[in-house]
Design brief:
There is one protein chain. This protein is α/β, with parallel strands linked by helices. The chain has three domains: about 5-110, no CATH class; about 145-195, Alpha-Beta Plaits, CATH 3.30.70; about 200-400, Vaccinia Virus protein VP39 (Rossmann fold, 3-Layer(aba) Sandwich). The chain has helices at about 5-15, 25-35, 40-55, 55-65, 70-75, 80-85, 100-105, 115, 120-130, 130-135, 150-160, 190, 200-210, 225-235, 255-260, 300, 305-325, 345-355, 365-370; strands spanning about 145, 165-170, 175-180, 195, 215-220, 240-245, 265-270, 280-285, 325-335, 360, 385, 395-400. Strands 5, 6, 7, 8, 9, 10, 11 and 12 form an eight-stranded mixed sheet that branches. Strands 2-3-1-4 form a four-stranded antiparallel sheet. Helix 14 (about 225-235) links the parallel strand 5 (about 215-220) and strand 6. Helix 13 (about 200-210) crosses helix 14. It starts with a helix and ends with a strand.
Length: about 400
Amino acid sequence: MLLSARYQAVLDILEQVWEDLYPADNIIKEYLHNRKYIGSKDRKFITDTVWDIIRHRSRLEFEAQTQMPRKILLCYLKNEDFDIVADGSKYGLSSITPEEKNFLRNLKDDVYPENVEKECPLWLYNKINNKTLIDSLNSKASVDIRANFIGRDEAQRKLRKEGLFFSYTPYSPYGLRSEERIFLQNCITYQNGEIEIQDESSQIAAILCDVKPNHKIIDYCCGGGGKSLMLASILNNQGTIYAHDINVKRMEGLDKRSNRLGVKNIKIISDINSNDMFDRFIIDAPCSGSGTWRRSPDAKYRLTPEKLQTIKNAQAEILNIAAAHLSKEGKIVYMTCSVLPEENEDRIEDFLEKHREFETVDMEKLWLSKFDTNYPGKDKRYLHCSPLATNTDGFFVCILQKK
């Protein structure tokens, strides 16, 4: 493809992304899937450029003084030769107009507002109120995987034979990490089900569920089933893990993933009965996803105060459901991939105020029983993971039990 055609493809994708309706990752995949004639090098260029623009969305919108994707793209390309990047060819980016030339000529190197500098919508910037944490959520994320039914030493050796080099994650005894972007779908070790992609924070949360084969376990908001699949590996396919999600479509790929990973003890259910009681009620709660902005920077722009309130209401409702279906000696494991206190400790405090029969588990004591490292948290009631604290995605874990 000519460079101008590449940028036209970038613009096509940006026009969908800027509608803020669907994840950018899904939009990019669908666009490229429907255009199989686009070569691998062109695909990489288009994908990398789209993500680079998304990661600098606040600054580009500030410069363009608009949310119009074409004008934003022109700001991104302001130092390029427009006779080449916008050549007006049949499949290329259309030539810039006199008005656009005048606009670009008058662009100034203004000082960005603080939230724009940190690439964060103002209302979220004020909620997080931690410049260093927000900076870390703009950093590059590593590729984390876990060994599945084999030791991570063996997984590391197998990957090395394929020319892929991973180091140990600092906390999870199952985890391996690469700082380089790697496409694992073509990897034999991956195809054989001996590894699975999973951020270390998510691995930590699964380990802290402290499951046993005799436990009745439900992964109530299982989504794609990442936690359920790791719990199955921890249990060596013993016992049963009930997987549930109110959005059944999110679980569509779980059977296929289970087959690849050799998992046999997950049972997908559409609902729970009124008399069902569980020893581990695991809530990977619907949330803002603010802890995953390193990987999904577009998510912060799709979130609104109204959507956040709806999410918080759902979190409170799910916690109440868990309380009604917990066995006497059972535990509720509440987790989010969020760094917003109102989705995390505020939700727990509100729950405990209404359910005085519950208390929090000592997370430091539980941590030391599961890991060979010091507890990385500052509060024994709540574990906060983040790029700053644990060099992982932002993640929150709290475990509740009856007094």
